[in-house]
Amino acid sequence: MENRLKISCTILMIVFVLFNFSYAKAQLNCDNQITNGNPKTVKLNFNDRIINGRESLKGMEAGSFYRILVSDINMNLYKVNINNKDTSSTSSGKLLSLGIDSLLKKIQLPNLITVLPLPDISKELAEEMFQAKNLEKNQNITEAIELYTNVQQKLTGILADAEETLIEISNQYVSYQVQDQTTGTYTYLTSGFDFEESFKKLDELRRTLNQVKIDINRLAEILSYLSIYKDEMGNSYQELSDNFSKLKSYSDTISKIISIDKITELKTRIMHRENNKANCYLSLPYEIKQGNNTVKVYIEPKSIESGLPSFNTNFSFSSKPSPFVGVGAGFYWTNMYNSEYAVSSSPIDSNTTEYRIIEEDNDQFEIGVASMVHFSAGEPNNNLHFTIGTAFPLNDLDRLRLLAGGGIRFGPKDMITANIMAVAGMVNELSNAHSINNTTTIEPVNITRSKLKVGISISIGYLYKF
User: What share of the chain is helix, strand, coil (3-state, %, to 5)?
Assistant: First the structure.
């Protein structure tokens, strides 16, 4: 009892391992497409409606690549479009229905059931052979009856084999249209079936038919010979002639059914289905653009006749800004300014004049134009930059200002910038030798002096990114 239990457990374990191996092998086709290297792959599981891997795209450098993998999808039923552009390979022809008759019609093969059976040789025609007194005539009638019977049997057998083989191929062709290819129905239709063997069988039937046509041509020669006796043979000759016409038509119909052109067309259609039978779609690499990237995925049925719904989704991610250098120009404002002074004079007598230094109504700021160079380290989600440059106040273009600081930018390539910077430059100040509002009888000279000062400035301007 214990040994039986061990054997049963061992069998169950083997079955379990084989099942998981088979399942893993089936999934390998899609899952093996994802690698840890470049390009990164975003996987969309069509069966579970889940997107995995998009987080890995965030912060990637512009110019790198990514792919879209759609798993658990029947590519014979659906086409995948990325960003509203068709990126999937499609086969020629519309989606086929599940009916065999409709299938045969849509793949442009005649419906075999419409081929009528051949008539048998009548008793009267058989007796004609024994009534003929002419030996050559008798021999030709005998050969005609034997040829007809033999060809009739061979054509009936060829037709039966061709019909069976074509229906088997048609069933397998339909199996590609099953929405869920993991179901038992799909497994049943495709399990153990070899298209190549079926087409070899059709090739063999075509060669057999060509041999039968030699007998048909011989029968036509005999019929031509017996035409000189058609008045003597009466209805027997007419029956033989009519049967030959049906035999020839029957042969021509079968020849069309299994012709090289028809079979080649069917092979081509099956090749398209076979190429698309994988349950996943892997796109070509797409380049990541600078800034925000939006990916739109459209999954649509290949045929309206299928009645299947359409699906679409989208997701976005930001690329890692690349380090860059840009130039720009703009206006700046600073708390630095030049102090301006005037000297007033008042006569005291004819020989003496009194002088006094007066401060003008100086603005407590300075406005000017600046030219700047901007640098960015390209950190993710960072629009900040460093800035250096030169500037000139509008009221004194001879004075140079040096700028250094940073700011924020808005835009893709042609940008608007806002900056906060330290500004350094020479400004006019009252000389220590003088004081305001003090009077003197000597006229003041060199009232101001130039002095290096540092202040704070803000600017708004334009930036062009190289």
Answer: 40, 30, 30
